[in-house]
């Protein structure tokens, strides 16, 4: 079943986070991920608001988790640590 990678982010260091984004995109694509939403307009209805929201679709939960654990994504993530506050989850879709 396909899965969605959903990230809610507050960027605290734009320069470092920019390097993360530059490296994360290719790592996500290499694992079959396709961006559905990246930092677009949103309406917060409940919970903590984060100004940047990202959704990527993967072929499966396993593919998304493999992406996260990959050396390429972890190298990108090194730039996001300390440059952002984030929540990230993977959710299997019902399709």
From TrEMBL:
UniProt xrefs under InterPro entries: Dimeric_a/b-barrel, DUF1330
Domain DUF1330: 2-93
Listed Pfam families: DUF1330
Taxonomy, superkingdom: Bacteria
Protein name: DUF1330 domain-containing protein
Organism: Rhodovulum viride
Taxonomic placement: Bacteria, Pseudomonadati, Pseudomonadota, Alphaproteobacteria, Rhodobacterales
